[in-house]
Structure formats: structure tokens, C-alpha cells
Amino acid sequence: MLKIKAKSFNELTTIELYNLLQLRSKVFVVEQNCVYQDIDAKDQKALHILGFKNNKIVAYTRIFKPGDYFDKASIGRVVVAENERKYGYGHLIMEYSIKAIDNFFNEKIIKISAQKYLKEFYKSHNFIQIGEEYLEDNIPHIAMVKSN
């Protein structure tokens, strides 16, 4: 069972921060073989959505209010530990993140920069592609927007 919490940067414990950065690095840098600067000085502005299983972070996103990343509210660094993906935790953490944007920021429109291969995953959460494909850190991405 996944237990999800939202925390500001200042509310994160050092262990939580270490574990979420380790998970992001493991997936986005090592697994995807992409050298890039994950620690980007945006974490301090983000609200961190932490998915715990047995007290270990196995799923994560960070969300932003409008103006802190894009002109619209946004969700980024969507990640689930490789050995936990079969349980649908990606969908659970996205649903929580979408609701958190409404609850914390009172926003309905969300913009994301999605890895292209995950287009159908995000479409299942009512995101639609806007614009053309582009490269971000040499990985094909698309901009997507959800509005309710």
C-alpha cells in the first residue's frame, strides 16, 4: 500500500531529501543513461509529493504553483522505483499530485513537460499534447496541458 504525503522543501527531513534525490538520480540519470543536473534549485520552490511503501520513498513528484516553473501550475520529476512500477503507483502519485495542485494552489490548469514515450500515461490523466516534440537533455519530450 502506498502512503502519500505532501511536504514543502523546509518540511523534508534530511533522510527524505536524500532518498528522493537518490530515487530521481537512479531513474533519470542511471536508468535512462542521461547525464544532466537534477539538482536545479527548483526544489526549494516545489511542494514535494512523496509516496512511501514500508517507510521507503518509492514514488515521487514535485508540483509548482503558476510562475514557479511554467506560467501554469505544473508537475515534474514524476518517478516510481523500477521494482514498484507494476503496482500502478505512477497513477496514484499523479492523481494525488493533480488533487494537490487544486487543494494547495486552487488551480485547475496544469502544464507538464512529458517524456514522449509516456504520452499515453499522461493522456490517461486527461493531459493533451500542445505543440511539437522537442529534446530536453537529449530525450524526446512534449508539452501537455490538463484543464478541468
Q: Can you walk me through this structure?
A:
The chain has 148 residues and is of the alpha+beta class. It has one domain (3-106): Gcn5-related N-acetyltransferase (GNAT) (Aminopeptidase). The protein is built from 3 helices and 7 strands. The chain has a 7-stranded mixed sheet with strand order 1-2-3-4-5-7-6, with helices on both faces. A hairpin with a 2-residue loop joins strand 2 and strand 3 (56-64).
The succession of helices and strands, N to C, reads EHEEEHEHEE
Relevant CATH superfamily:
Gcn5-related N-acetyltransferase (GNAT)
What percent strand? 35-45%
Strand order of the largest sheet: 1-2-3-4-5-7-6
Strand tally, please? 7
Number of domains: 1
Structural class: alpha+beta
Q: What percent of the residues sit in helical stretches (DSSP H or I)? A: 25-40%
CATH topology type: Aminopeptidase
Largest sheet: 7 strands, mixed
Distance between the termini: 28 Å
**Architecture per CATH nomenclature, i.e. the level-2 architecture:** 3-Layer(aba) Sandwich
Low-confidence stretches: none
Helical stretch tally: 3
Question: What is the CATH domain class?
Answer: Alpha Beta
Average pLDDT confidence is 96
Radius of gyration: 14 Å
Q: Give the overall form.
A: globular
